[in-house]
Structures are given as structure tokens and as C-alpha cells.
């Protein structure tokens, strides 16, 4: 393999990304791939600090434009230090959220025009795009119910249902425009049924390469 494979996991709150990330990693390792697991915002020292600001600054009002630029600042570091080196070494990069989340949350959720996101995406990423994105889709209420069983909500989790409905729609719109890359998984099903859908996609896309 001359270049590794870049796989991202996306979805609304409580959709099961973190749960399924473990399943995807194990599937890839059984297939003989070397896997680098990472996340956004985060994945580097700078990225994790930015994540802390973005998720846990309870009193700080952050303008949507600043929020988007912070996501891309963290991403730029992540691409340079983690993602590109791993791909160049032929590894599989498995990333919990990437730029589709910016289109969904800062675009759909916060209402920033997608042309601005496109411009910064092109500048920061050059030609780097995920090879495969698994979109874990679940109705907002059901996802929030699953997520709500955890501790105190972060800055995003405190948003209302309308915000998350826009996020979900933005994700689904992107998947409809790029069906080959972005595969929608019905995450409202049982874990076993979700894993079956994920396996089918991995067999088709990863084994098929
Ligand atoms: N963000 C952004 O705004 N812009 C960007 O560009 C980027 C990110 C990159 C951090 O994300 C926040 O950053 C995110 C968007 C923003 N904010 N939000 N909301 P995160 O990924 O770290 O946090 P999260 O979205 O809150 O993830 P999450 O709520 O942990 O969701 P999840 O990982 O998809 O869910 P989970 O932890 O795997 O599962 C939730 C629970 O459901 C858990 O108890 C599971 O055991 C259970 N579960 C999972 N699957 C099932 C099934 N199939 N049946 C029953 N129960 C299940």
C-alpha cells in the first residue's frame, strides 16, 4: 500500500461513535492493518488543549467564527503531526470526527456559510480528505437519551434540540452528496445490528481496495 487509509467516524450526540471505534479498530487489526486511533478536536498536545477550551469553558462565549477557526487550528496541527505521517507510513488512521463535523456543527448548527468552511478546509488540508466516513445516524432525542446517561454536559451538549436537528440534517445532506465516501449507518438499532452494518461497509470498502 503506497499510502495508508484515512477513516473517520461521525454522528450526532450519543450515536455510538466511541463504542464502534473499538469495533472498527479490532476489525482492521484482524485484517493485518496497523491502526492509529485519534480524535478531533484533539489528537495532539495543542489539539487537546483546544478541545478543553471548546468543550469545557462554561462561562466563555465563543463566537461561531472563532469556534470554527479553533477547530481548524487544532486540525492543522493534527494533520501535520499525526495524520499525514501515519498515512505516509502506510497505516490506517481511524479518527473520531473530522471536517464533516465542522460542516455539521459550525455550518448546520451555528449557521456559518459553508463557502467559508470550504475555503479554510482547502487551505488547511490541501488534498487530504477521508477515504471512508462512517456516519452513525440516530434521531436526536434517542441519541441525547443515550448520551444523557453520562456526567455533566459539555459546551455542545448544552445546546437545544433545534441545534442538534440542524446538525443531523447537515450530516445527512453531506452523505447524500458523497454517497461513495460517506456511508450512513442506522445507529438506532441494537449494537449487534449496528456492527453488522459496519462490517458490511468495511468488507466492501477496505477489503475491496
Ligand atoms: N465538534 C465540532 O463542533 N466541530 C468539529 O469540527 C469537531 C467537533 C471535530 C466533541 O465531540 C464535540 O466537538 C462534539 C462536536 C464538536 N460535540 N457534541 N455533541 P465528541 O465526539 O468527543 O463528543 P460527543 O459527540 O459528545 O460523543 P458522544 O456523545 O460520546 O457520542 P458517541 O461517541 O457517538 O456515543 P458513545 O459514547 O459511543 O455511546 C453513547 C452511549 O450509548 C453509551 O452509553 C453506549 O454504551 C450506548 N450505545 C452505543 N451504541 C448503542 C446501541 N447501538 N444501542 C444501545 N446503546 C448504545
Automatic annotation (TrEMBL):
Domain Thymidylate kinase-like: 9-198
Catalytic activity: dTMP + ATP = dTDP + ADP
Pfam families linked: Thymidylate_kin
Record-level GO BP terms: dTDP biosynthetic process; dTTP biosynthetic process; dUDP biosynthetic process
The protein's Enzyme Commission number: 2.7.4.9
Keyword annotations of the record: ATP-binding, Kinase, Nucleotide biosynthesis, Nucleotide-binding, Transferase
InterPro entries according to UniProt: P-loop_NTPase, Thymidylate_kin-like_dom, Thymidylate_kinase
MF (Gene Ontology): ATP binding; dTMP kinase activity
Binding of ATP, residues: 11-18
GO annotation, cellular component aspect: cytosol
HAMAP family: Thymidylate_kinase
Family classification: Belongs to the thymidylate kinase family.
Function of the protein: Phosphorylation of dTMP to form dTDP in both de novo and salvage pathways of dTTP synthesis.
Record-given protein name: Thymidylate kinase
Organism: Candidatus Muproteobacteria bacterium RIFCSPLOWO2_01_FULL_60_18
Name of the gene encoding the protein in the UniProt record: tmk
